From TrEMBL:
Highest taxon listed in the record's lineage: Eukaryota
Serpin domain boundaries: 39-455
Organism: Oikopleura dioica
PROSITE patterns: SERPIN (PS00284)
InterPro entries recorded: Serpin_CS, Serpin_dom, Serpin_fam, Serpin_sf, Serpin_sf_1, Serpin_sf_2
Protein family according to the UniProt entry: Belongs to the serpin family.
Keywords annotated in UniProt: Signal
Name of this protein: Oidioi.mRNA.OKI2018_I69.chr2.g6567.t1.cds
Coiled-coil segments on the chain, per record: none
Length: 456
């Protein structure tokens, strides 16, 4: 069997960090659709969890794009439409009826390259890793980005092997029969990229493993309020004293999934400052900026706190964010003053995502009988399919800012100041959160989304 490695024009890989960001100005790129699709993916996956939940749509998308690029028929269309929220038909060029994969992947690449490039300012830290580990020969490389359709002969798409390293990052040929050594190699790559957060990311590998595709990232940034007047301190939060918590116990109670009052690790309280806060009576939305290295490309921590989490429809989050953004743009600075009280928290998760994606309608890629990755493997008589789709993520909020990391692997196998006029706001009920990258005039691209139901 010979491996055909799809090259995704500037990156399934995040290894292109040494290059300057490319210009994405083509009118046929459905950028906002791709970003909204990732929001839908993240919040849909959260609904599978009764308690706290966390997922990195950006890390997942890195691997899902590879699966879609190598897939044919339902294998590809289910990933694009059911998981990534994209209309498959919109990416077929009307003039020749051929699928244009670069229209799909370029918005994702744009987000990644923006994060990589802006991190060079030193305002925040961002690391990423993408790699393919395979026991197959990969002398031939195919490019699904230009003129593919499901009937085109693959030899028309062969390009030079030199492109592998540039576009796909680290590309290692290893012997999966030496299972322990393989696990050590894969886990070491993930652990390094995520600052030691996942030392044993993969617990084991099936003996019939053909390939492992990895996508990992780490981000760390401090709070930043670009609305703070010059006479104020740039520090946004202090830790609330025990005395104040005792005096205002009800406000500093987090009423989660249980009836008792829960205590987070710490409560954070801001000075009275201008913040973007939206409340329509049924849901409270707060945007908190972090250092992003650019005024045009923001990194935002968003809290979405429904009045009643049990009856709240997560599908309303994206349109609610649009409404909030419209309100904030029309508000004067005087209307934004508030004192924020938010809990610190740390959340970790690791699980196989196949079951959740199946419930979203993605089936073919995970079925030995139905998976068709013939654009990835020249000889697919052994029916390669995705046996494991491992995903892990961590997210923490502190008085300084946020730290977050994520990794995804697809395993292919064969068969304290007082307030004056400002609002006093307490985040003391279950809430959703999102860490996103937003460029001027574009939708938010979610790096991480989560749900906090309890803090104990």
């Amino acid at each position: 069997m010979k491996l055909l490695v799809p090259v995704l024009l500037g990156g399934f890989s995040l290894a292109a960090s040494k290059h300057s960001p490319k210009r994405y100005q083509r009118k046929d790129i459905r950028d906002d659709e791709a970003r909204l699709g990732l929001q839908k993916l993240g919040f849909s996956l959260l609904e599978e969890s009764d308690g706290n939940g966390l997922v990195s749509p950006l890390s997942l998308a890195g691997v899902l794009h590879l699966l879609a690029a190598g897939g044919v028929g339902n294998t590809r269309s289910e990933i694009l439409e059911k998981a990534l929220g994209l209309d498959y038909e919109e990416f077929i060029k009307s003039s020749n009826g051929k699928f244009q994969y670069n229209w799909v992947v370029e918005p994702h690449n744009c987000v990644m390259e923006t994060l990589i490039e802006n991190s060079k300012s030193g305002d925040y830290e961002f690391e990423s890793y993408t790699g393919l580990f395979t026991n197959l020969e990969h002398d031939d490389v195919i490019n699904p980005c230009k003129d593919w359709n499901d009937d085109s002969p693959s030899h028309q798409c062969v390009i030079k092997k030199d492109f592998i390293k540039e576009y796909l990052g680290e590309n290692k040929k290893i012997d999966f029969q030496g299972s322990y050594d393989v696990l050590e190699t894969v886990n070491e790559a993930v652990n390094k990229a995520t600052r030691g957060n996942f030392p044993e990311f993969l617990d084991s590998l099936p003996p019939n493993t053909l390939m492992v595709a990895l996508s990992a990232l780490y981000i760390e940034s401090n709070w930043y309020n670009n609305k703070i007047p010059a006479q104020f301190s740039t520090k946004m939060f202090d830790v609330v004293s025990n005395g104040e918590i005792r005096r205002n116990r009800n406000n500093y109670c987090f009423h989660g999934s249980s009836s008792r009052c829960e205590a987070p690790q710490e409560w954070l309280k801001s000075e009275e400052l201008p913040f973007d806060v939206y409340n329509d009576g049924s849901v409270l939305v707060i945007d908190l900026n972090l250092k992003s290295g650019s005024e045009q490309d923001e990194i935002i921590f968003t809290i979405v706190m429904p009045d009643d989490m049990r009856s709240f429809d997560y599908r309303s989050i994206s349109p609610t964010l649009k409404k909030a953004q419209s309100v904030w743009q029309s508000q004067s600075l005087e209307e934004k003053w508030a004192v924020l009280n938010i809990p610190t928290f740390e959340i970790k998760m690791k699980e196989d995502m196949i079951g959740q994606l199946r419930r979203m309608g993605v089936h073919a890629a995970f079925s030995p009988q139905n998976a068709d990755f013939s654009h990835l493997f020249t000889d697919h008589t052994d029916s390669p399919f995705v046996k494991v789709l491992q995903h892990a993520a961590t997210f923490s909020v502190s008085k300084d800012g946020i730290k977050a990391s994520a990794a995804t692997a697809a395993v292919f196998a064969t068969r304290s100041l007082s307030t004056q006029d400002g609002k006093m706001i307490y985040v003391n009920k279950p809430f959703y959160f999102m860490l996103s990258s937003r460029s001027t005039g574009k939708e938010r691209a979610p790096l991480f989304v989560g749900k906090i139901s309890t803090l104990v």
